[in-house]
C-alpha cells in the first residue's frame, strides 16, 4: 500500500518564478519542456541551472574541450529560446566525474536564496533503477536545498547571499523522470514545441539519435496520457516542501 502525503498537491500554475535544476544540459527539456513551456507562456519566469559541464556526452570527438563547451551552450540557448527560459546558470562540475555532494548542495542553496523561486523542478533522485550518479546527486541536493533554504545556519557557497537572505516561500518541488507521478501535465498544445526543443540538442545526438529520442518521448507522452482527456502528457511528482521529511 502506498501512503501519500496529507498535504495538498501544489498548483504548478500558481508559480511565478521557477528554478529548474538539471544534472546535464538537456534533462529539464527531456523531462519537462512541455509543461515548462506552458508555464512560461502563463507568465512564469523560468530559470535553468545545470550542475555538470556535460562534456562526456558530446558526440564529435574531434572537438576540443572549449569547442565542445561552445556547442553545448549553442544548443542550450537555442532550446531555451523556444521554451521561454529567462536565465541559464552553469555550475561546471565534471560530467560523470568526481565532485562533492555537499559542494553542489551549497551552490544550490546559494542560487535558491539569491533567485527566491516559488517552485523548483529537478529529476527524481529516487527513480527506480536510476544508474547515473549525476542524476541521483542533483535530485537529492535540490531536495535538501529546498528543505534547508530557510535555515541560514546551513551555509551556502556565498556568505554574502546568506547574510542578505530574509526568507521566502517555496510552494513546491516538481520531480520529472519519475515513476510515481501524482500529476500528469497536459502537453498536447506544446508537444510540437517540445519536439523542436529536443532537436536543438545536436552536440550529444546525431540525427538518427535525435529521431530515436523524439520517437521515445512521443511514445512515453502518449503512454502517460492514457485515460486522460488529452493526448500527450509529462509525469511529475509534485510535492509541498513539508512533505520532504518524515512522510507528512
Topology record:
Layout: E1 17-22, H1 27-41, E2 45-52, H2 65-83, E3 85-93, H3 101-115, E4 119-123, H4 133-148, H5 159-164, E5 172-176, E6 183-186, H6 191-198, H7 207-224, E7 233-239
Parallel strand pairs: 1-2, 1-4, 2-3, 4-5
Antiparallel strand pairs: 5-7, 6-7
Describe the structure.
By secondary structure, this protein is of the alpha/beta class. It has one domain (13-243): LmbE-like (Rossmann fold), CATH 3.40.50. Helices cover 39% and strands 18% of the residues. It has helices at residues 27-41, 65-83, 101-115, 133-148, 159-164, 191-198, 207-224; strands at residues 17-22, 45-52, 85-93, 119-123, 172-176, 183-186, 233-239. It has a seven-stranded mixed sheet, with helices on both faces. Helix 1 (27-41) links the parallel strand 1 (17-22) and strand 2. Helix 2 (65-83) packs antiparallel against helix 6 and helix 3 packs across helix 4 (133-148). The longest helix is centred in the first third of the chain and has 19 residues, at 65-83. The chain starts with 16 loop residues before the first strand and ends in a 9-residue tail after the last strand. The mean pLDDT is 97.
The CATH architecture can be given as 3-Layer(aba) Sandwich
> What structural class should be given to the helix and strand makeup?
alpha/beta
Widest β-sheet, arrangement of strands: 3-2-1-4-5-7-6
What value does the Rg take, in angstroms? Answer: 17 Å
Our estimate of the beta-strand percent is: 15-25%
Q: Order of helices and strands, N to C? A: EHEHEHEHHEEHHE
Which CATH C-level class is it? Alpha Beta
Low-pLDDT residue intervals, each spanning 5 or more residues: none
Largest sheet: 7 strands, mixed
Instruction: Kindly report the name of the CATH homologous superfamily.
Output: LmbE-like
Distance between the termini: 16 Å
- List the domain count as a whole number: 1
Helix % is 25-40%
Overall body shape: globular
What is the third-level CATH name, the topology? Answer: Rossmann fold
Which whole number gives the mean pLDDT?
97
Number of helices: 7
Amino acid at each position: 500500500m502506498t501512503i501519500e502525503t496529507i498535504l495538498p498537491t501544489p498548483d504548478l500554475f500558481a508559480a511565478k518564478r521557477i528554478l529548474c535544476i538539471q544534472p546535464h544540459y538537456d534533462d529539464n527539456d527531456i523531462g519537462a519542456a512541455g509543461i515548462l513551456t506552458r508555464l512560461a507562456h502563463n507568465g512564469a519566469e523560468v530559470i535553468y541551472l545545470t550542475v555538470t559541464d556535460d562534456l562526456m556526452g558530446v558526440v564529435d570527438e574531434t572537438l576540443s574541450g572549449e569547442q565542445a563547451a561552445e556547442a553545448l551552450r549553442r544548443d542550450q540557448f537555442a532550446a531555451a529560446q523556444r521554451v521561454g527560459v529567462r536565465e541559464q546558470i552553469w555550475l561546471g562540475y565534471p560530467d560523470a566525474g568526481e565532485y562533492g555532494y555537499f559542494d553542489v548542495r551549497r551552490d544550490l542553496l546559494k542560487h535558491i536564496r539569491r533567485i527566491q523561486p516559488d517552485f523548483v523542478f529537478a529529476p527524481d533522485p529516487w527513480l527506480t533503477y536510476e544508474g547515473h550518479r549525476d542524476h541521483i546527486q542533483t535530485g537529492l541536493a535540490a531536495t535538501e536545498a529546498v528543505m534547508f533554504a530557510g535555515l541560514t545556519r546551513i551555509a551556502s557557497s556565498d556568505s554574502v547571499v546568506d547574510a542578505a537572505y530574509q526568507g521566502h516561500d517555496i510552494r513546491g518541488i516538481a520531480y520529472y523522470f519519475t515513476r510515481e507521478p501524482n500529476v500528469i501535465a497536459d502537453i498536447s498544445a506544446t508537444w510540437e514545441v517540445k519536439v523542436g526543443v529536443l532537436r536543438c540538442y545536436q552536440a550529444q545526438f546525431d540525427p538518427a539519435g535525435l529521431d530515436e529520442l523524439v520517437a521515445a518521448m512521443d511514445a512515453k507522452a502518449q503512454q502517460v496520457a492514457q485515460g486522460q482527456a488529452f493526448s500527450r502528457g509529462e509525469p511529475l511528482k509534485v510535492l509541498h516542501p513539508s512533505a520532504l521529511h518524515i512522510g507528512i
